[in-house]
Design a protein that fits this description.
Chain lengths: 86, 408
Amino acid sequence: MTEAEIRETVLQVLGSIAPEVDLSRLKPQARIRDQLDIDSMDFLNFVIGLHQQLNVEIPERDYGQLATLTGCVNYLATAMHSQPGM
Amino acid sequence: MSDFLMPKLGADMTAGTLVDWCKKPGDDVRRGDIMAEVDTDKGVIDIEAFSDGVLDTLLVQPGATVPVGTPLARIREPGEEMPANALPTATGAPTSVAKLITVPCAPTDRGTALSAEDLSRLRISPSARRRARELGVDPRTVQGTGGGGAITREDIERAATSRVSATPTAASPPTAAPATKPAETADRNMRMRRAIAAAMARANREIPHYYLSTTIDLKAALDWLSKQNEQRSVADRLLYGVLLLKATALALREVPELNAFWQNDRAAVQPSIHLGVAIALRGGGLIAPALHDADRKSLHELMGELRVLVARVRTGGLRSSELADPTITVTSLGEQGVEAVYGVIYPPQVALVGFGKIVQRPWCVNEQIVQRPVVTATLAGDHRATDGHRGGVFLAAVERLVQEPDKL
């Protein structure tokens, strides 16, 4: 999966959690939780969505790396590379 | 023969609008089955049956707004014979009733296997179903692109915009002409706001509130939680809030006077502990549906049910028992960064429990100063029903229970 495809997947999962937001305006380097009104339940659902779509395990201690859109894409690209065929 | 009445889903509800019937005359009815969808100030709620039987007659048609307590349908009790005059009364020929039941209600997710009847129904999410109604789109003509071919909200919207003219089909429910989305959402928000305003104003007027707070060291709980979640896959992890909810439910067993309804000038202690969990809606508004028997469920079960409740609040499908049954409300505003919540009790409940955000603070342990993650727990109590002493005993119990998370 290319980084662009990963990015699309991340945005799609975010869209299912915050359906009323225009995600094209999401700043990739800024914290997602500062730009969208999402709580810890939403964040957990976000992580579950990523897990289901991309088949990667994401330990709790790595949640911090998912704070921004850029962070998500980088983390997931690395994770998918090192967890092939999960 | 018994009447199925428009239920009262909260102290402030006076009327509801029938949106859709989910069963037709002749259908079997079991307690807990979803009978109809009703539009209230808290959104569209799935109304459940209270007893077993067979649906005999529909008395109210989709689109009608009726007061709480109005008979909506007649149910033949088990063992009762069909009346000699078997035609439905006041609704005309059975075919006209069948035509009104257009968009099938989504299958219930109560953990039982889908019946053949369920499988033949459309795979469409509740919010997509609503959107279809708003836009006058017949979901049966829409190609689903969601998981398993399910029809999503986007599929409906795409279908609506790709049409030359969105003519309502003959099978559309006879409600008012579909409003534009912003106008309908604004109207719904206004009605919810008014309902909250009425309930809160009444609570403040009638209930003499007292407030208590205590600060709880969460190190033991969070350390335990983090070990638990390390061993669990993403979808099985627990949020710390579930520990606080379970501790609250167990503490209520020790101080049951806080789990009561104030009615007829006295407190009626409730036999079951159904925690109303305050959930904020995106774009404003608040609903506190029930986690039933929270004291008797495992953390894992509570987490699963909480996830379902949050999803239902945000996208639709809340059930009447979830709205009507809370015996106490718990509100957690930690995410917004507030340290303590001093809320307004929702009548006829007699207490409100609040939790703020977890903060790192210097703390005294064994005569040393250490850093601990702490949370401020608050109790708003109805002084007619309880005194500060009992409220204090309750909060002390919550604090004690949270120190042994493996026993929760």
